[in-house]
Amino acid sequence: RVKTWQGGRGRVRNVTFSNLDVRGVYHPLVLDQFYCPESQHPGVCANETDAVAVSDVTVSGLTGWHTSGVAAMLHCSQSRPCGVVATGIDVRSVPGCSNVVRCLNVASRPGAACADGDNMHGFRLDITRPMTEALGDVPCVHTSA
């Protein structure tokens, strides 16, 4: 998880996440340049145009399963798009959940989950496979995030 305050200044760069196995998490991969928790900022957060620059973030070898329907949420500022490369991602959703990657203003390479104009729409269906193993009574927790 990489999260920065909207309206903040500075940079996050050269961050690598590799060989991670997640099980039963809500959102396996999050990059959020609009972080503004209610507990630390009562009321509605202003929509700031400036943001902390995020570049050279690499995610490789992410496996496992999630319960939210959102495998990855990459929300970046229009004024400072994020630079992210993700390879070897095999994250599945529990039965009954969708398995999407939500992207906004992500500078990515062609063919990646956030490439080819999908940033303009804010989301893209992921191509990862659904769960094939039985997980018992693990529910899908749908999210509006």
TrEMBL record:
Q: Which UniProt keywords apply?
A: Cell wall, Glycosidase, Hydrolase, Secreted
Q: Where does the UniProt annotation locate this protein?
A: Secreted, Cell wall
Q: Does the keyword Hydrolase apply?
A: yes
Q: Name one GO molecular function term.
A: polygalacturonase activity
Ribosomal protein in keyword set: no
What are the GO BP annotations of this UniProt entry?
carbohydrate metabolic process
Q: Which InterPro entries match?
A: Glyco_hydro_28 (IPR000743), Pectin_lyas_fold (IPR012334), Pectin_lyase_fold/virulence (IPR011050)
PANTHER family recorded? PTHR31375
Q: Hey, which family's this protein in?
A: Belongs to the glycosyl hydrolase 28 family.
- Protein name stated in the entry: Polygalacturonase
Lineage of source species: Eukaryota, Sar, Stramenopiles, Ochrophyta, Pelagophyceae
